[in-house]
Amino acid sequence: MKYKRSLLKLSGEALMGKKEFGFHSSSLQKYAEEVKKVVDIGGQVAIVIGGGNIFRGLSNKNMKKKMIGRIGGDYMGMLATVINGIAFQAYLENLGICTSIQTAIRMDQIAEPFVKDRAIHHLEKGRVVIFVAGLGNPYFTTDTAAVLRAMEIKADVLLKGTRVDGIYTDDPEKDKYAKKLTSISFDMAYKMEIKVMDKTAFILGNENNLPIIIFDINKKGNLKKVISGEKIGTIVSK
Fold first, then answer.
1. Percent share of the chain, pLDDT over 70
2. Is a pLDDT exceeding 70 seen at residue 202?
3. What backbone torsions phi and psi does residue 89 show, to the nearest 5 degrees?
4. Integer Cα distance of 231 and 211 in angstroms
5. Which strand (E) or helix (H) includes residue 25?
6. How far is CA 224 from CA 36, 65, 77, 88, in A?
7. pLDDT digit string (tens) for 112-169?
8. CA-to-CA distance for 196 and 161, rounded, in angstroms?
9. For 84-97, what is each residue's pLDDT tens digit?
């Protein structure tokens, strides 16, 4: 196993499947089974899930009309990640995986507050830790939260699970000649203005020497392959 401890970042949209809103049971089940494969071989997994399947702040029409400000919208998005975390926890525990939800915004009846050392203890005991509510502050995306949490728990790698199998020279859905890049530097990611993660997340990854792998989470077995060191997706590193 190449990466003993990893942080998996999933978008909220990934949980929707083909629906336009909310959860798709088969998607939750599929991702839970992928995580179980890693836990079964001794991998330590932490997870950050976005909230875009429930609420996406900047694109919300009420925000565009100034009815809901950026700060309020961001807090609503944080609460959406809590809902996603609870849902994903249920599917993981149905597979016999012990989990812990840690939240950046205190809600004691639902989850324990984020404590770095406690999160690491859970991981060392074989539990999956789900981080919710972002960083507890507006203006930060869940991508940025994922990088910071990965650094705090001393993860070996951050895995960004998407519906594409890596980074391409152009949009592969629009340009049939677009070429997949198996590895790029953080500097190159800046110059290419890669949209799969926000720029702040890449900057933090670069400054703290945290490799980020972009891969297709929907292909069965890919998560375990990435953890094992197979060349799946695109790795962004120094």
1. 95
2. yes
3. -60, -45
4. 13
5. helix 25-40
6. 9, 44, 29, 18
7. 999 999 999 999 999 999 999 999 999 999 999 999 999 999 999 999 999 889 999 8
8. 10
9. 999 999 999 999 99
Reported as a pLDDT band with limits 50, 70 and 90, residue 209 is: very high
In three-state secondary structure terms, 131 is strand
Task: Provide the 10 A C-beta neighbour count for residue 70.
Answer: 13
Q: What would the two tokens of residue 7 be?
A: 């942080």
Query: Are 187 and 207 contacting, i.e. CB atoms less than 8 angstroms apart?
Result: no
105: tokens are 């915004």
Reading the block at residue 164, the tokens are 């594409």
At the fourth CATH level, the homologous superfamily of domain 5-237 is Acetylglutamate kinase-like (3.40.1160.10)
CA distance 62 to 110: 28
Measuring CA to CA, which residue among 61, 63, 101 is closest to residue 83? Answer: 101
Q: 235 phi and psi, to 5 degrees? A: -100, 130
Mean pLDDT of 70-95: 95
- In this structure, which amino acid lies at residue 6? S
Enter the tokens of residue 136. 């507890």
Under the phi-then-psi rule, with left for phi > 0, alpha for psi from -120 to 50, and beta for the rest, what region is 11?
beta
Compute the CA torsion angle 101, 106, 110, 114 (nearest 10 deg). Answer: 10
Q: 């840690």: which residue's tokens?
A: 102
pTM above 0.90, yes or no: yes
Domain layout of the chain by residue ranges: 5-237
Average pLDDT of the chain to the nearest whole number: 93
